[in-house]
């Protein structure tokens, strides 16, 4: 493990390397404790670099066994190999030479899960971002593209399956029960896309014929006995391949495409060329083990990794500052895929909820950074919601500004021009400027400035003149190390909604660029006058969430109610009701803090009732509309001096109020939506379950709540319903025997399935209230829990620290003490996962003063621990700064 050196990497320091590595031949002789890696690297001096310039390679924790140049063994004086690098002092003066390096590594003791490690007895690799240097010395940076040939040798009994990138080559038997396989990847790639898997796994196989008629052999490898659980992932893969051909004109390029599911994985999945490696959570699914959300995630992540083949692999990043070039764009592509495969409005609402839950707090706290950061200490900490989700929103805005056709021309130009290269954000933007003739220079600020812009708006209607005016003002709050911000180009989709719910037309508009239903905000203030507006409209702003901003729009509740009922844009319709619920909860929490009780206007419950009954709306949409904003959403809106207990109480009161007012109607709807016993993971069926389960959550607060939830649990024929009922019981009735019985029954049925048990841990870790700290501590000692496995850690501790407002932020600081202890314990094995857990306190400064002080103490206790990893100290230092 690298400990913190405090080194900062800066974008402006980028310079090309002195040497290139056009060919890389690797040989692995696998054994758990001592794997021998022989790297034969064709090294080419870059033009203009002085002959004899020292060659510096990256390394991390390697044991060097041997070095040769052009087949000649080197003396120890000719090179040095301190822990983090290899230096060849005087390389041959000729243009090219072959450097052979033999290193020894120990996969079985690699607990950081970076480089070559073992998961359940399977050898696997994770090289992004800087894991390849834990396998061999190399120019481990994304702008070094090399053609790889890989030979893997292992015991056949231990590893009958030997996989690497590219296409399969020779295989053969060796003495002593060993065998080998050779793989060749003709596409030059950066080292972070290297992968190797060796082990004893089961598989499902299929085939995809590409648009030019080439047959590609597809395989998904999983633990023996779990093959059947990979069928949904395979189906998603084939749909992704087809979609990328149809929508982006991108065809797959190798003879094989392999996916391997492993149970120990730091992130979701990895796009290694031709050999994607997945966290098994995002491959394995059937109705008894996976929820509808799991199916949707599997579809999205399978697509995401596959789409990287073009956006990431064929065109990669020049340096890690450009991470959003591949991630923001690929998230945009997977969002579009899911929108096409499922319901576009429902998908959009889900995306915005995710963005607000994960990216907004990042942007509004001490870890804020631009979509393209300018500096980092540990790149692993920049796989963030800002780079991924906001990065995707920025691409979506480009599409909104350019329109569909020009956007597609820009993408085509990008693929044509940069195929086989390591590119930058500037390269990317230039393609859209050229393809559309538009000037995107002001828009570029979305990549460079951190923080969430705010738009405030007021409106007025002059009935006599038939004029409607909109006053719009943009502002961007300061973020760490960026106190002054420049004005952004914000594309706001809008409509002027008339009394019948239809958009009103207008004769002319004055004051700014309004184009095809989009206001292009570029200045601090805009005064926009629409003339010829026949009736008083209600303005619907930021339709479809066209820009990732916060909106301060003075609007009466009755106008919001009108939009919630009638806006033709489904996103805005959802937003209007969500804003009503948010504002009501905030007002309720203020009253509670003042010693009173939360009160709610009756119209809120009325609208909720009307939504349930509105058969013109998709069920999944209705489910989302009825889902009250989470406690963290409310806290974010309040912004400072947060008391999570008051928010919890207000939200709970709102749910009870809505349920009480609509009890009979909700119960009737709940019964109407009953399961017919036949399961399909498709969006329409999932929507029915989602609506029924939201109703269950409301009904659980009413008189027969525990009985209804318990019956729901007992009769569930799929995991979505079972997990929903368990959550309702544990979160709303944890003191009742029904809750404990359900927990027990769930454990008896699913105790041997770690991924399902993750739900059991997570549901308990998310239980609101002061007792959950102790419960989480108890669960950490449960035989099914393991501190070594990232999925277990995330389900128990990740859920508690980042997903349980009232439980984690217990007033006496017990949650924070558990936080410090756990983060330090995890860090000893896996710094990357520890650093992620540690982001659970990133919003500590918005807490009320007492909690703030207790949180600060916990953070300081971590910061003052000696020998912290670069990953963890980077997060803690920035959080405290
Ligand atoms: N590129 C992957 C995500 C990923 C990033 C880092 C990892 O290890 C440190 C692993 C995976 C993706 O976007 O899917
Ligand atoms: Zn990605």
TrEMBL record:
Domain of life where this protein originates: Bacteria
Peptidase M1 alanyl aminopeptidase Ig-like fold domain boundaries: 451-552
GO BP, sorted A to Z: proteolysis
Keyword Transmembrane: no
A Pfam family annotated for this UniProt entry: DUF3458_C
Reaction(s) catalysed by this chain's protein: Release of an N-terminal amino acid, Xaa-|-Yaa- from a peptide, amide or arylamide. Xaa is preferably Ala, but may be most amino acids including Pro (slow action). When a terminal hydrophobic residue is followed by a prolyl residue, the two may be released as an intact Xaa-Pro dipeptide
GO molecular function: alanyl aminopeptidase activity; metallopeptidase activity; zinc ion binding
Domain called Peptidase M1 alanyl aminopeptidase C-terminal: residue spans: 558-881
Family label: Belongs to the peptidase M1 family.
Annotated protein name in UniProt: Aminopeptidase N
């Amino acid at each position: 493990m690298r400990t913190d050196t405090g080194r900062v990497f800066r974008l402006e320091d980028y310079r090309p390397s002195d040497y290139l590595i056009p060919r890389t031949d690797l040989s692995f002789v696998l054994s758990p404790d001592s794997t021998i890696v022989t790297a034969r690297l064709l090294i080419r001096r870059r033009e203009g670099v002085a002959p004899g310039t020292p060659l510096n390679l990256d390394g991390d924790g390697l044991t060097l066994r041997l070095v040769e140049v052009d087949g000649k063994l080197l003396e120890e004086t000719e090179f040095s190999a301190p822990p983090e690098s290899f230096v060849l002092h005087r390389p041959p003066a000729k243009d090219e030479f072959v450097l052979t390096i033999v290193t020894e590594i120990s996969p079985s003791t690699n607990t950081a899960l970076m480089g070559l490690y073992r998961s359940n007895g399977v050898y696997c690799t994770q090289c992004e971002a800087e894991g390849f240097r834990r396998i061999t010395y190399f120019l481990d940076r994304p702008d070094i593209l090399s053609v790889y040939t890989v030979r893997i040798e292992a015991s056949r009994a231990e590893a009958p399956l030997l996989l690497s990138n590219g296409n399969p080559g020779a295989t053969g038997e060796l003495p002593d029960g060993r065998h080998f396989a050779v793989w060749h990847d003709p596409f030059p790639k950066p080292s972070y896309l290297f992968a190797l898997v060796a082990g004893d796994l089961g598989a499902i196989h299929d085939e995809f014929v590409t648009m030019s008629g080439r047959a590609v052999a597809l395989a998904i490898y999983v633990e023996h006995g779990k093959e059947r659980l990979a069928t949904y992932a395979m189906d998603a893969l084939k749909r992704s391949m087809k979609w990328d051909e149809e929508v982006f004109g991108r065809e797959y390029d190798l003879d094989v495409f392999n996916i391997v599911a492993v149970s120990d994985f730091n992130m979701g999945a990895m796009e290694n060329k031709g050999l994607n490696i997945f966290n098994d959570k995002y491959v394995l699914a059937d109705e008894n083990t996976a929820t509808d959300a799991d199916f949707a995630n599997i579809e999205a992540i399978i697509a995401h990794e596959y789409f990287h083949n073009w956006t990431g692999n064929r065109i990669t990043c020049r340096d890690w500052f450009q991470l959003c070039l591949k991630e923001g764009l690929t998230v945009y592509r997977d969002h579009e895929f899911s929108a096409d495969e499922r319901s576009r409005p429902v998908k959009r609402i889900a995306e915005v909820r995710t963005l607000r839950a994960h990216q907004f707090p990042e942007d509004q706290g001490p870890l804020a950074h631009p979509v393209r950061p300018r500096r980092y200490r540990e790149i692993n900490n920049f796989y963030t919601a800002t780079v991924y989700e906001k990065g995707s929103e920025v691409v979506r805005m480009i599409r909104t500004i350019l329109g569909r056709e020009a956007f597609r021309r820009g993408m085509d130009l990008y693929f044509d021009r940069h195929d086989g290269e390591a590119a930058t954000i500037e390269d990317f933007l230039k393609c859209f400027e050229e393809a559309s003739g538009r000037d995107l220079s002001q828009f570029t600020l979305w990549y460079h400035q951190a923080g969430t812009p705010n738009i405030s708006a007021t409106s007025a209607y002059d009935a006599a003149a038939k004029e409607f005016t909109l006053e719009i003002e943009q502002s961007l709050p300061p973020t760490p190390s960026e106190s002054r911000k420049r004005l952004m180009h914000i594309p706001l989709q809008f409509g002027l909604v008339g009394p019948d719910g239809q958009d009103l037309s207008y004769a002319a508009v004055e004051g700014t660029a309004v184009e095809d239903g989009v206001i292009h905000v570029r200045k601090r203030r805009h005064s926009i006058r629409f003339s010829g507006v026949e009736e008083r409209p209600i303005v619907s702003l930021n339709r479809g969430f066209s820009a990732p901003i916060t909106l301060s729009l003075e609007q009466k509740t009755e106008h919001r109610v009108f939009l919630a009922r009638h806006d033709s844009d489904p996103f805005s319709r959802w937003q209007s009701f969500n804003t009503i619920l948010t504002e009501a909860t905030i007002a309720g929490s203020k009253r509670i803090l003042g010693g009173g009780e939360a009160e709610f206007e009756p119209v809120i419950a009325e609208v909720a009732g009307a939504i349930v009954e509105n058969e013109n709306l998709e069920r999944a949409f209705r489910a989302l509309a009825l889902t009250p904003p989470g406690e963290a959403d409310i806290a974010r809106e309040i912004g400072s001096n947060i008391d999570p207990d008051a928010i919890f109480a207000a939200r709970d009161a709102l749910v009870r109020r809505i349920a009480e007012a609509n009890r009979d109607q909700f119960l009737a709807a709940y019964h109407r939506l009953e399961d017919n016993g036949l399961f399909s993971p498709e969006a329409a069926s999932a929507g029915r379950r989602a609506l029924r389960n939201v109703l269950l959550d409301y009904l659980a607060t009413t008189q027969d709540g525990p009985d209804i939830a318990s019956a729901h649990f007992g009769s569930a024929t799929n995991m979505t319903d079972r997990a929903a009922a368990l959550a309702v019981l544990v979160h709303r009735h944890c003191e009742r025997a029904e809750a404990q019985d359900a927990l027990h029954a769930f454990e008896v049925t699913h105790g041997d399935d770690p991924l399902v048990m993750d739900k059991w841990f997570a549901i308990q870790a998310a239980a609101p209230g002061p007792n959950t700290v102790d419960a989480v501590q108890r669960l950490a000692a449960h035989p099914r829990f393991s501190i070594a496995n990232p999925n277990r850690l995330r389900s128990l501790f990740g859920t508690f620290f980042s997903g349980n407002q009232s439980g984690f932020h217990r007033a006496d600081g017990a949650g924070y003490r558990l936080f410090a202890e756990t983060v330090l314990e995890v860090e000893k094995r896996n710094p990357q996962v520890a650093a992620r857990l540690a982001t659970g306190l990133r919003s500590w400064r918005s807490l009320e003063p007492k909690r703030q002080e207790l949180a600060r103490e916990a953070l300081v206790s971590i910061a003052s621990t000696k020998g912290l990893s670069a990953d963890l100290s980077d997060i803690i230092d920035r959080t405290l700064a």
